[in-house]
Design brief:
281 residues, alpha/beta, eight-stranded parallel sheet, two-stranded antiparallel sheet, 10 helices, 10 strands
Length: 281
Amino acid sequence: MTPDGPARDLPLDAHLHTDLSPDADVPIDVYAALAVEHGIAELAITDHIDFDPRAPAYGVSFEERERTVRQAAERWGDRVAIRFGVEITYESAREDDIRAHLATHRYDYTIGSIHVMPDSPYRADQVASFVAGRSLAEVVAPYFDEVLAAARSGLFDTIGHFDYVKRYLAPHVTPDRFATAPGLWEPALRAVVEAGMALEVNSSGLRQSPGETYPTAAVVARFRELGGRRVTAGSDAHRARSFAYGLDTAYAAAAWAGYRELAFRRGGDGVAIAIPGRFRT
């Protein structure tokens, strides 16, 4: 069963892209109005930043983004809380640049994610040839090696869409194959646990080819078994029609794994946000 529209009456959507991301087209006020309409109490605006000069979100203006989000937070503050976040494309080769940026730029919330970049083997024009003749372990290794490095970097509040590689590999590798091969992703999952970062339950996969969250409820449960203490949830919307889409499914996955709270931010100013009781079994 797929969601029939935006989720309602939830405390947080921690992953949203506005028209300040090169691949999104939503003014921040549109998200704020949708949040009021659908009862989403708090939003994290997490527009993309890339550190490869060839990538679309390279060289964006921190000052413009912060000003836009902070001003919106003031306008809407009596109706919805709006936080200034970022989704950083993590590349181990560019970790020094990322570290330097985060040392000098203050965000409320940071997501570290692995995306298809110019040198990625998962680019649409070459993924079929990359998959051909390789084992599943060989196919996914470049992706999960980067996830593991992102976790070990200690730079982020959250690791975004943990197994997003499922999207890039469809239809050559089906989600079912991931479900039967936990040894391929578990080392990276353990690294997230050891880093004390939150694991994001990202609902965008429900509207994309995998048809399931990133990661699935079973992986979220394994994260908890391994000692993971912090999870969060986001819709990863890039269009207004995707706002909060499937977000209740992400909440349900966290609750099914035994979590009673979502984590938002780390450190002394980190907060815990209760998962509504209707998701608890």
